[in-house]
Each structure stands twice: as C-alpha cells, then as structure tokens.
DNA sequence: TGTATTTGACCGGT
DNA sequence: ACCGGTCAAATACA
C-alpha cells in the first residue's frame, strides 16, 4: 500500500536492491543483503590493495603509504561492519532497525488522515554524520546551474526568513551527497545566503565535463572519495553563479582559516572583484578542498557512513590516470 | 502518471 | 527542552 508508493518514489535505499528488500520487512534478509554488499565492498578494497601493491611494489612510504593506510582503514571498516552484522547477538541491524514501517503499528491509529509517522520511519536516519565542509555564498539568485531538490523548509529561531533545504537531484541515482541551505539575507532580503554542504559527486548530465581549469591553476592534486573535488573540477562553477560570491569557507567544526589576511573582521570573506568572479569561481571548490583537508583526514576514522577521504598527491593528473586507468580493466574486468 | 514541492513530524545534538 | 536538519505523506504540477 503506502509503503510501496514511498519506496517507489523516494527510493530510500541506496540501490534498487535495497529498496526492493525493504519491502520484505525482514531484518534477517536485510542483514544478509547488507553482508553481501559489505563483502562486495571489501572485495573491491582488496583489489585496490593488490593494485596498489603492483603499482608501488617496493616502497611504501610517503603518499603511497598514505593510500595504503587508508585502504587498510577501508578494509578494516568493512571487516568490522561484517563482524557486527554477522555476530549472532547483533540486534536488528542498526541501519534497518527502522525498516519495518508497517509491522509495528501497535497504535494503528489511522484515524486522523494527517500523516502520523510511525516510529521506525526514520530508516537509517543520520544527522550530520558527514564531516563535510560548508561554503557560504551570497547570491541574488538561487539558481546556480545545478539541479537541486527541495526537501525541507524551516523557520529559524533567530531569523526572520525561513531556511530552505535542498539536496542534489542525483542523491539517490548517483549517491551524490551535496546539499545546500538557502535563506534570504537578513541584511538584504533581495539576496540569498546559500550554504553548500558537501560536494557533488554526481555527474550532472546537463553539464558538460569540459571545464577543467588549466593545470597550473589547480592546487596540488587531490584524490577525493566521496567528495567531488576532482569531478567538480570538470563542472561549471556551479555554486558560483555570476551573481554570487563566496563569503566564507568553513568546516563543520571550525573556521579553518581565512585565506585573505585582513578580512577577519567581516563575517564573510568577500572576493575582491565580483565582476571577475566567474573566472575565479572554479577555484572555490579547490579552496574548500584544501582548507578541509586536515579536517577530513582527521575525520576519516570517525566516519563510517560515508567515505570522505582526500589526500594530496604530488603528481600530475594524467599520472593519476596512468595509475588508475591501467587498473581499470582489472577492477572492472567486464 | 511521474516528478517536484510543501509541510508537519521525527530525531539528534547541545 | 529546544533548535535545526531530515524524513515522508500529502499535494501540486507538468
């Protein structure tokens, strides 16, 4: 009945198989499937490990060791999750504990047609689990060239204007974690304060992947898992519509740094020349990425739900291609 | 009919 | 307990 509709539309599961499984309402099946998925991931991580060893046979210092280390972390995480899942005493799997939307209708109060949310509807609800950085932008328009889907609006306690919440349209089809919050500016209601959280890991088909800035403009290269750093490079200066300006870059935990000396007094970091923002805009994701590196690195351990790892490597992008493309066939033999 | 938005409820962090 | 972020049923729209 309703459940089917929700599942079909919203697609809460990360994959089709997950969604279909949810209809079964069986914690056991959920666990089994989760185990399979985790095994898959573990397998993939193992392959990466092998490939790394082939690519960097002898040494394991410097960046290679970092890659290896992170790979080990991934493997460990998978292993741990598997242990938790398969241990007999494991309670209903945490992620799925709430996946019985219909089964526990103890109250069964269907009387009011106003939606009554059963306990357990929050299927794997995670709040602020990601250590994503946020980028605040002041814009005249909400349109930034990206496709967003509004998922909520809130009146904010200390604010005159409500805040709207958007997620990337490709959240479910491409597992893109980018979200943004839009609120009218207190000072200038004709402007929007847009806070971007997370980065696009999706490839928006409406966008052409050609706008890579020249390599000399890029910061040292960053491999990003979960964050879109590399991919976003290829996209239009998304968050940076011609009208917008970056105001502030901050991590979730703290303001990492203020790249412009002397601007600390202002709440936001204003770019010097808004007219040329379109040109400077592509650097925004890089700035953010670079600024976030420390935080993200330090958060790798604590974040199991999403792999947000990025690290700096000192070789050119095409060298990365060399490294990874030669592995591609092995990784994806079909 | 499928997709997007609205909006009250739920839930986590503080 | 409060606030803010997210979920998801209901609704609007194409």
From TrEMBL:
Region (Disordered): 1-27, 91-133, 231-268
Residue intervals of the WRKY domain: 137-205
Molecular function GO labels: DNA-binding transcription factor activity; transcription cis-regulatory region binding
Biased composition (Basic residues): 112-130
Record field: compositional bias (Polar residues): 17-26, 96-105, 236-248
Pfam families in alphabetical order: WRKY
InterPro entries found in the cross-reference section: WRKY_dom, WRKY_dom_sf, WRKY_plant
Main location group: nucleus
Swiss-Prot/TrEMBL keywords: DNA-binding, Nucleus, Transcription, Transcription regulation
Keyword Endoplasmic reticulum: no
Subcellular localization: Nucleus
GO cellular component: nucleus
The organism's place on the tree of life at top rank: Eukaryota
Identification of the protein by name: WRKY DNA-binding transcription factor 70-like
Species of the source: Phoenix dactylifera
């Amino acid at each position: 009945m309703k459940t089917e509709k929700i599942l079909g539309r919203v697609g809460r599961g990360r994959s089709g198989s997950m969604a279909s499984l949810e209809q079964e309402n069986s914690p056991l099946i959920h666990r089994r499937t989760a185990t399979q998925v985790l095994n898959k991931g573990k397998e993939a991580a193992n392959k990466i490990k092998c490939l790394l060893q082939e690519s960097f046979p002898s040494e394991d210092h410097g960046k290679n060791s970092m890659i290896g280390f992170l790979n080990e972390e991934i493997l460990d995480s998978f292993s741990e999750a598997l242990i938790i899942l398969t241990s007999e005493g494991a309670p209903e799997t945490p992620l799925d504990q709430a996946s019985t939307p219909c089964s526990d209708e103890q109250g069964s109060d269907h009387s009011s047609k106003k939606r009554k949310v059963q306990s357990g509807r929050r299927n794997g609800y995670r709040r602020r689990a990601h250590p994503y950085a946020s980028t605040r932008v002041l814009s005249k328009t909400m349109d930034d060239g990206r496709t967003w889907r509004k998922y909520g609006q809130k009146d904010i306690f200390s604010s005159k204007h409500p805040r709207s919440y958007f997620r990337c349209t490709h959240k479910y089809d491409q597992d893109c974690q980018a979200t943004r919050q839009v609120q009218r500016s207190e000072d200038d209601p004709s402007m929007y304060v847009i806070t971007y959280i997370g980065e696009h890991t999706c490839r928006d088909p409406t966008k052409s992947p050609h706008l890579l800035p020249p390599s000399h403009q890029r910061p040292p290269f960053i491999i990003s898992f979960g964050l879109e750093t590399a991919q976003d490079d290829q996209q239009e200066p998304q968050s940076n519509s011609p009208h917008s300006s970056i105001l502030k870059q901050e991590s979730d935990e703290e303001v990492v740094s203020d790249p412009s000396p002397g601007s600390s007094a202002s709440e936001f970091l204003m770019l010097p020349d808004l007219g040329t923002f379109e040109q400077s805009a592509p650097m925004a994701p890089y700035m953010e990425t670079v600024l976030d590196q420390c935080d993200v690195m330090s958060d790798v351990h604590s974040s199991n739900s999403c792999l947000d790892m990025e690290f700096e490597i000192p070789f050119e992008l095409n060298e990365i291609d060399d490294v990874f493309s030669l592995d591609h066939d092995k990784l994806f033999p079909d």
